[in-house]
């Protein structure tokens, strides 16, 4: 069994390579060999591959920057995945794609189910939604895994930002009215490998699935948990602020919590407690120095 992974330098790409099962050979394509701003080239790589399954871990993830870089965000997050999914469908290869909680507008307090109405608040979410639709429209075997608030010891994420900007500070202001499920990239990688095995055994089911860590918390709660776990000589006090007091170019959903019951029913995948994964990530960061 061979898997072809796009996006090898990101949080998820790194964890996919690290956590690949023994019976899976991994082939990776980074930006140097498959640039998603060139959808046709990415599709051609799939047409030429000898892999049995395609995993797309590449994306334009700069939420604020996307507001002023719409064309690139749509090329990378929508057009390229669409072309790649079409090439995969033509070859009969399953296509595993990753999407986001930011396809929702964040209204209400109920966790979002897969078939709830989507209404992204910003360009990043719009482009990811267009990508979901393009992947589904290719009509091949596919999984669109919507996840949220991804963290790991690599790349750019909220955990690393907090440790960088909070170290040595007395006080750090963090928004308390956006809630979601922090999700470790390592846990997402494990889910994608479980789904890969299901497709390998002829038991893969196509569609959109939600997967996020539990419990759902605010960014301020998450920041407190990060500093509680970190071994810092001085830890900042978290000042809980409303989103209004932390203006950003892109609007973010207030309620980002995902209902993950479908993936449990279909694939037997449980929501991981993010506290455990956070502890491992902070240990990894502190060991690396
Ligand atoms: N980060 C998060 O909080 C969340 C992420 N997601 C989704 O999860 C998936 C994985 O995200 P994550 O691992 O955090 O992303 P990262 O930002 O950590 O990594 C993005 C990856 O995409 C690659 N990439 C970006 N642009 C291009 C391009 N033009 N051509 C080729 N490769 C490109 C990057 O390569 P390079 O290093 O060369 O830039 C990198 O390997 C994405 O689909 C994302 O939308 C969903 C919810 C939350
Ligand atoms: C750095 C910082 C951020 N914040 C706020 C801003 C924002 O509302 C919230 C999160 O900020 P970030 O910019 O780190 O996170 P953001 O880039 O919005 O994270 C998102 O990334 C994309 C890719 C996704 O798909 C989403 O699921 C989500 O994880 O925290 C503070 O309140 N205080 C701070 O010091």
Give the mean pLDDT.
Answer: 97
**Are there runs of 5+ residues with pLDDT below 50, and where?**
none
- From the spread of the alpha carbons, the general shape counts as globular
Q: How far apart are the termini?
A: 36 Å
CATH superfamily of the domain at 2-155 and 183-212 and 257-273: NAD(P)-binding Rossmann-like Domain
SSE pattern: EHEHEHHEHEEHEEEHEEHEHH
Strand order of the largest sheet: 2-1-3-4-5-10
The main β sheet shows up as: 6 strands, parallel
Could you tell me the radius of gyration in angstroms?
19 Å
Query: What percentage of amino acids are in beta strands?
Result: 15-25%
- Per CATH, which architecture of the domain at 2-155 and 183-212 and 257-273? 3-Layer(aba) Sandwich
CATH top-level class of the domain at 2-155 and 183-212 and 257-273: Alpha Beta
**Residue share in helix:** 40-55%
Class of secondary structure makeup: alpha/beta
The CATH topology of the domain at 2-155 and 183-212 and 257-273 corresponds to Rossmann fold
| Individual helix count | 10
Bound molecules: NADPH dihydro-nicotinamide-adenine-dinucleotide phosphate, dtdp-4-keto-L-rhamnose
Total beta-strand segments: 12
Helix/strand layout:
Layout: E1 2-6, H1 11-18, E2 25-29, H2 39-48, E3 53-56, H3 63-66, H4 70-91, E4 95-100, H5 123-137, E5 142-147, E6 150-151, H6 158-166, E7 171-175, E8 179-180, E9 183-184, H7 185-200, E10 207-210, E11 217-218, H8 219-229, E12 237-241, H9 261-267, H10 274-288
Parallel strand pairs: 1-2, 1-3, 3-4, 4-5, 5-10, 6-9, 7-12
Antiparallel strand pairs: 8-11
Helix pairs in contact: 1-7, 2-4, 4-5, 6-8
Bound molecules: NADPH dihydro-nicotinamide-adenine-dinucleotide phosphate and dtdp-4-keto-L-rhamnose.
The site of NADPH dihydro-nicotinamide-adenine-dinucleotide phosphate has 26 residues, from helix 1 and strand 4.
């Amino acid at each position: 069994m061979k898997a072809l992974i796009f996006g090898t330098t990101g949080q998820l790409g790194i964890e996919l390579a690290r956590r690949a099962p023994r019976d899976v050979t991994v082939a990776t394509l980074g930006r140097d060999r498959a640039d998603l701003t060139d959808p046709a080239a990415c599709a051609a790589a799939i047409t030429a591959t000898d892999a049995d399954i395609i995993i797309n871990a590449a994306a334009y993830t700069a939420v604020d920057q996307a507001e002023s870089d719409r064309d690139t965000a749509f090329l990378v997050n929508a057009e390229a995945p669409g072309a790649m999914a079409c090439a995969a469908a033509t070859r009969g290869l399953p296509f595993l794609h990753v999407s986001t909680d930011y396809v929702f507008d964040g209204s209400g307090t109920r966790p979002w189910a897969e078939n709830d109405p989507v209404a992204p608040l910003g360009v990043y979410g719009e482009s990811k939604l267009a990508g979901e639709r393009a992947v589904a429209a290719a009509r091949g075997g596919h999984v669109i895994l919507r996840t949220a608030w991804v963290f790991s010891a690599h790349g750019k994420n909220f955990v690393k930002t907090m440790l960088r900007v909070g170290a040595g500070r007395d006080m750090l202001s963090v928004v308390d009215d956006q809630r979601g499920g922090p999700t470790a990239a390592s846990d997402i990688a494990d889910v994608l490998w479980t789904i890969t095995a299901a497709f390998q055994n002829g038991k893969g089911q196509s569609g959109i699935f939600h997967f996020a860590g539990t419990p759902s918390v605010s960014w301020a709660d998450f920041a407190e948990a990060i500093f509680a776990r970190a071994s810092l000589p001085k830890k900042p006090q978290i000042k809980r602020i409303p989103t209004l007091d932390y203006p950003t170019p892109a609007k973010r959903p207030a309620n980002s919590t995902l209902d993950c019951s479908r993936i449990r029913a279909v694939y037997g995948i449980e929501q991981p407690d993010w506290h455990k994964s956070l502890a491992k990530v902070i240990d990894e960061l502190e060991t690396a120095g």
